[in-house]
Design brief:
Layout lengths: L2 H11 L14 H4 L7 E6 L4 E5 L5 E2 L4 H13 L20 H5 L10 H14 L3 H13 L8 H9 L2 H12 L7 H12 L2 E2 L1 H12 L5 E3 L2 E3 L1 H14 L5 H7 L4 E3 L4 E6 L3 E6 L10 H14 L5
Helix pairs in contact: 1-13, 3-5, 3-11, 5-8, 5-9, 6-10, 7-9, 8-9
Length: 304
């Protein structure tokens, strides 16, 4: 497959979508990002890398980090994780309080905010040095020792994080947060603030693209079965209440973030990352969604 030619044609074909949507301006630090950027990178399981556009520009990966925190939590406590977090699509906004209250403090899945906050609580309890351990894991996945948190973004999220604070308090009320609420929220916002570019993120997601290899990075050891299950949750829950649309149009397991990034995998073949800060009403990158739809259409490569 001539992936470089494919992604060059994709860059041309998504141009009509420039200017649609807007960046996540409810997070002040993200509101200042130039929204008129677009990058794409494919990283094959054989080690070939193809990129185009702004693939070298670092961005805040936001909720894409929840895939990495889920992997760490599964490594630490295994299937006991599912006693505190579900595996079902939410069908509601990623920061919904209504569903969490109705279901007595058990989040639907680890990728909505409530579920990721519970996962952050687990990591705080189980890791010796949570912030250092998490970023070391990311650095090993990417092979880039310079990957880091953006503390300005984390502070910005906390300053406006009233709804996430409400979610954390509701989780605490239902005894699904063990640690101090403020410490859990701080760690959660730090996880979301990690910055990397399309090339780094594609390298990180390559570990989820080939479950035949033993997953062992940064002290995190997962079985083939656990990696496949992470992919399954990405397929059904990775795009908030637009997961069905992404499966229908694209047909790959993936995870989006309100920083404008989308990371996805075609099992046994490649990982792919697109980034464009302008979002649709569901919080997913407009140009990113279209680019991945074009990718699987042009290559005829999807899991279906």
């Amino acid at each position: 497959m001539k992936y470089q030619e494919v992604i060059e044609s994709i860059c041309r074909e998504v141009k009509p979508f420039e200017g649609l949507g807007k960046q996540a301006d409810y997070i002040p630090a993200l509101a200042r990002v130039n929204p008129d950027q677009f990058g794409i990178c494919i990283h094959t399981v054989h080690g070939d890398v193809y990129s185009e556009g702004d693939a070298d520009v670092p961005f805040s990966i936001q909720s894409i980090s929840k895939v990495f925190s889920l992997a760490m939590a599964l490594n630490l406590i295994g299937d006991r994780l599912w006693e505190r977090v579900g595996k079902e699509p939410s069908g509601t906004s990623f920061n919904s309080l209504i569903q969490l209250e109705a279901e007595r403090g058990k989040p639907r899945n680890p990728f909505i905010n409530a579920g990721a906050i519970v996962v952050a609580d687990i990591l705080l309890e189980k890791l010796p040095n949570p912030e250092e351990d998490f970023i070391s894991f990311i650095r090993e996945l990417t092979g880039n020792p310079d990957i880091n948190y953006n503390e300005e973004v984390a502070r910005s999220e906390r300053e406006k994080g009233y709804l996430n604070a409400a979610i954390a308090n509701l989780l605490k009320y239902h005894d699904n947060i063990k640690g101090d609420i403020e410490e859990v929220l701080h760690f959660y916002f730090m996880l979301c603030s990690v910055e990397m570019n399309c090339k780094d993120l594609a390298a990180a997601f390559l570990a989820f693209a080939d479950h035949r290899k033993h997953f062992s990075y940064g002290g995190v050891d997962l079985s083939s079965s656990q990696v496949k299950r992470i992919n399954a949750i990405m397929q059904t829950c990775g795009f908030y209440d637009e997961a069905g649309e992404f499966s229908f149009l694209v047909g790959l397991p993936g995870k989006s973030g309100v920083g404008g990034g989308i990371a996805a995998v075609y099992p046994m073949r490649y990982s792919v990352v697109v980034w464009s800060p302008r979002l649709n009403q569901k919080g997913n990158s407009i140009m990113g969604m279209k680019a991945l739809e074009l990718l699987t259409t042009k290559t005829r490569e999807s899991i279906f």
